[in-house]
């Protein structure tokens, strides 16, 4: 270390002590801001993603006349004591009743839902049933049966513990899944982790719109494909661009028509006026779902809802604040570059002010994790237009790597931007494992590895609870 009066050699030229000090300070600042972004050395072999054919076993129709299929569940109210059960019958409407109970052989409660149906170009859907079962006990295993009176099928789920600050809870994270052989590998890989209790799905479900005439049969096959997970644990849905199904050339002018009929969410419970943006509490997490493809400018319903929603989050009750949105705000791949920029401009300062812990996005078919950065100082004239390290900012994770038919996004902007901590173009899924109010363990698993291997992992330190006895977000 240079002492005052000593000369230091920098790039072959002697420099003075004050200049050396400045250089050291700049280097420390740089490391603090960037912490050395890594582009993974793992290079996945470039291969085309291939649709699973219609006669694949994962698309098999359950046996029996009018047997319920495409069974999926999602949280049914704001605190996790209700569940929305959805399924499809093809031959006739059948019953919309769900029988349920805590003993497999004694389903002594029931609830009645409704069914709907829609047409899309030359396709007519089956009968899509949705039934909300309420007043469930927390942390309890329930069995439920659908298809009553015809060919009944029975499944089970476990409700989350009561909402509370130190409730351990493990979420899976998948995006842009589709229905290819790679999609199947991702789902199988996810299922091999016995700890995951609910799925945070960040949009782009079936990719039916990539098939001729938006072939809605591919919505049905996707529902059957994922049933092995969606019937047993709630998937928290985010809407993506592949849910738009906006096809005026086919006479289909109503955006989100198939998705809206098939996937119900508890949006009214959080005061939302649209199923595309809403919130839930689950265990120690508060999850806010945003809509990239609905208006979010000032005065719009989504803007007004989020403005009122964020102050409602009580970090003493739910320390972990998680945001799901399809189009990423920080993305260093050459695909969909800056598509999320306008929403970032509208909402980023709110997320920083409210110390959101993590934002999960999809859309880009690869994986990336950011440092804690924000880019909220710019005001057109001050020139402050670079992301900077920010303790209060979320980590941004892009995980649109479920394995859909459009293939991998394997071209990256170079050099790796300073906000990008780790990136890799592989398919996979992640686990967000909340331990208590201060710590959560996060791991991303690429499909090429066994489940025990985490290709990227990091401990999350809660933004409000940096120590267990002080909520730094409370006033
Ligand atoms: Fe997308």
UniProtKB/TrEMBL annotation:
Domain of life: Eukaryota
Catalytic activity as recorded in UniProt: a phosphate monoester + H2O = an alcohol + phosphate
Signal peptide (from-to): 1-36
Domain Purple acid phosphatase N-terminal, chain residue ranges per copy: 68-159
Enzyme class: hydrolase
Domain spans labelled Calcineurin-like phosphoesterase: 170-367
Stretches assigned to the Purple acid phosphatase C-terminal domain: 393-451
Keywords from the UniProt entry: Glycoprotein, Hydrolase, Iron, Metal-binding, Signal, Zinc
EC id: 3.1.3.2
GO molecular function per UniProt: acid phosphatase activity; metal ion binding
Family (UniProt): Belongs to the metallophosphoesterase superfamily. Purple acid phosphatase family.
Identification of the protein by name: Purple acid phosphatase
Record organism: Canna indica (Indian-shot)
Phylogenetic placement of the source organism: Eukaryota, Viridiplantae, Streptophyta, Embryophyta, Tracheophyta
């Amino acid at each position: 270390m240079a002492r005052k009066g000593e000369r230091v050699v920098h790039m072959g030229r002697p420099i003075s002590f004050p200049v050396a000090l400045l250089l050291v300070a700049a280097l420390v600042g740089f490391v603090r801001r960037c912490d050395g972004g890594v582009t993974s050395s793992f290079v996945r072999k470039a291969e085309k993603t291939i649709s699973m054919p219609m006669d694949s076993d994962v698309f098999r129709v359950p046996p029996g006349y009018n047997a319920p299929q495409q069974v999926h569940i999602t949280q049914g109210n704001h605190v996790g004591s209700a569940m929305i059960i959805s399924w499809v019958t093809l031959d006739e409407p059948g019953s919309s009743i769900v029988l349920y109970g805590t003993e497999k052989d004694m389903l002594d409660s029931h609830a009645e839902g409704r069914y709907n149906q829609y047409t899309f170009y030359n396709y007519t859907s089956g009968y899509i049933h949705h039934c909300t079962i309420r007043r469930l006990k927390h942390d309890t295993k329930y069995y439920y049966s659908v298809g009553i009176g015809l060919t009944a099928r029975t499944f089970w789920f476990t409700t989350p513990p009561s909402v509370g600050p130190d409730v351990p809870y493990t979420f899976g994270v998948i995006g842009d899944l589709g229905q290819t052989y790679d999609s199947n590998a991702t789902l199988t890989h996810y299922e091999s982790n016995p700890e995951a209790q609910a799925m945070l799905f960040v949009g782009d479900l079936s990719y039916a719109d990539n098939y001729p005439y938006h072939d809605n049969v591919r919505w049905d096959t996707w529902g059957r494909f994922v049933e092995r997970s969606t019937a047993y644990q709630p998937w928290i849905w985010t809407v993506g661009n592949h849910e738009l199904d906006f096809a005026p050339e086919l006479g289909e002018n109503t955006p989100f028509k198939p998705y809206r009929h098939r996937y119900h969410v508890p949006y009214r419970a959080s005061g939302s006026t649209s199923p595309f943006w809403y919130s839930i509490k689950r265990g120690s997490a508060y999850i806010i779902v945003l809509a990239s493809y609905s208006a979010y400018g000032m005065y719009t319903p989504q803007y007004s809802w989020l403005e009122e929603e964020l102050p409602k989050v009580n970090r003493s009750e739910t320390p972990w604040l998680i945001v799901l949105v399809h189009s990423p705000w920080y993305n260093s791949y050459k695909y969909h570059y800056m598509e999320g920029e306008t929403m970032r401009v509208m909402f980023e300062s709110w997320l920083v002010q409210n110390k959101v812990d993590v934002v999960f996005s999809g859309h880009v078919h690869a994986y990336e994790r950011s440092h804690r950065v924000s880019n909220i100082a710019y005001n057109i004239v001050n020139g402050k237009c670079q992301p900077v390290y920010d303790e209060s900012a979320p980590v941004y994770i892009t995980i649109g790597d479920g394995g859909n038919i459009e293939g991998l996004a394997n071209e990256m902007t170079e050099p790796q931007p300073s906000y990008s901590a780790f990136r890799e173009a592989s398919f996979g899924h992640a686990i967000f494992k909340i331990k208590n109010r201060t710590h959560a363990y996060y791991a991303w698993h690429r499909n090429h590895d066994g489940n025990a291997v985490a290709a990227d992992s990091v401990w999350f330190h809660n933004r409000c609870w940096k120590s267990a006895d002080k909520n730094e977000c409370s006033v």
